[in-house]
Amino acid sequence: MKLIGPFRQVITLANIPLRGKLSDEQIEIIEDGGILISQNKIHQIGNFEALKSENQNIEIEEIEGMQIALPAFTDSHTHICFGGNRANDFAMRNAGKTYLEIAESGGGIWSSVQHTRNASEQELLKTLVERIDFLIALGITTIEIKSGYGLDVENELKMLRIIKRAQQQTKATLVPTCLSAHLKPRDFEGSNEQYLEYILAEILPKVKEENLAKRVDIFIEKSAFQPEESKAFLLKTKNLGFEIAVHADQFTPGSSRVAVEVGAKSADHLEATIDEDIEFLAESDTVATALPGASLGLGEKFTPARKLLDAGAILAIASDWNPGSAPMGNLITQASILATFEKLTTAEVLAGITFRSAFALGLEDRGKLKSGLKADFVTFKTNNFQNILYNQGSLKAENVYIDGEKVL
Ligand code: NIG
Ligand code: FE
Fold first, then answer.
1. Is the pLDDT score of 110 beyond 90?
2. Is any ligand 1 atom within 6 A of the Cβ of residue 78?
3. Superfamily for 74-360?
């Protein structure tokens, strides 16, 4: 066994419920705390000196100076495997061009598809691992990563295989998701429905065979796939044994309803969700995932996180890091900003980037510092956990632990 501490504060998030609004009084703070690790899992959290005297013959990892510890974060929605760069899209949007004009002049998702198809596997792997390391440095140890810039058998499998190879180079948990239904590629001859059939017949069986992903995502939107065809597709993927996530209600409402109806693990975006659908989501076990990075990248409104929490939804917050709509990648900055605009408590934000976002990925073994859970945690050089969100991302994580071992 190993005891790590003392920490000025250990924020456990133990006993905080999975759904609904939270007050900061619900945050358990262990002062002068220690984290006792056994076989890579959390054995006990308590006062450091008490744990030290109660447990003889244990290894002690002494913490220097004033630090606090809290559960490591989970980013449950990213597109960080990509080639190229869309800085020109960003500049054109800010200069007043519309999404359609940008797509027509060679930008948009399709341009990332071309760059990703043309990139070498080595280059894609290298940049992917660099982005993973950037996220780990923020205190994120569980990262969902989507395909969706390949959009044919060869290139979707290429992306998912690279994500699998990246897993061999990092201790972070990577959760791959097949997003072949991001957009019908321009070089596909046939209708949307035919492209969805192609995914079912040609891509998903191979994804399964090679065990490349257990989750399927789709972008339901006027410019991508329509609710009815998407619903039929998702029910079929479910029959194949995949878990479901949905890009829902980003610009127009209607698709979070589909996500709930098919029993998706999460409905992500929701910037345009109407009140009636907020209620529908709140009554379901489908996690509502806010992606403030996309609102900041596009200059669009934020997901109605306050209303979702008040209605009793399970609210997660993720970065959506991608080359187009969300280029920043700093989940801590984004979650802090979402909190100021949506009036979220510290407890709601911390829950949204820890155990609630892990739940969206079907991972219930992490995100709280509690006996028996995965010993992934992050430390900050400060005397008070409120400083993390207050500094809006500029207070950097000091150390990051995965399975009880310091990785940073
Ligand atoms: O989550 N909305 C669709 N997909 C991505 C954007 C991807 C891109 O622009 O490359 C998103 O925002
Ligand atoms: Fe996305």
1. yes
2. no
3. Metal-dependent hydrolases (3.20.20.140)
Ligand 1 centroid, distance to 131 Cα (angstroms): 17
Per-residue pLDDT tens over the stretch 295-343: 999 999 999 999 999 999 999 999 999 999 999 999 999 999 999 999 9
For ligand 1, pick from 113, 182, 225 the residue to mutate: most ligand atoms within 8 Å of CB. Answer: 182
pLDDT, position 100: 83
Q: Starting from the CA of residue 149, give the closest ligand.
A: 1
For ligand 2, an ion, list residues with CB under 5 A.
320
- 2-72+367-406 classified as CATH 2.30.40.10: yes
Map out the domains of the chain as residue ranges: 2-72+367-406, 74-360
Mean pLDDT of the chain: 98
Given the CA of residue 297, which atom of ligand 1 is nearest to it?
12
pTM for the whole structure: 0.98
Contact by Cβ (8 Å): 255, 249: yes
Mean pLDDT of 97-108: 90
d(CA 90, CA 88): 5
**pLDDT at residue 99 greater than cutoff 90:** no
**For ligand 1, is residue 370 a contact (CB within 6 Å)?**
no
For 341-400, give the secondary structure using H, E and C.
HHCCCHHHHHHHCCHHHHHHCCCCCCCCCCCCCECCEEEECCCCCHHHHHCCCCCCEEEE
Average of per-residue pLDDT across 157-185: 98
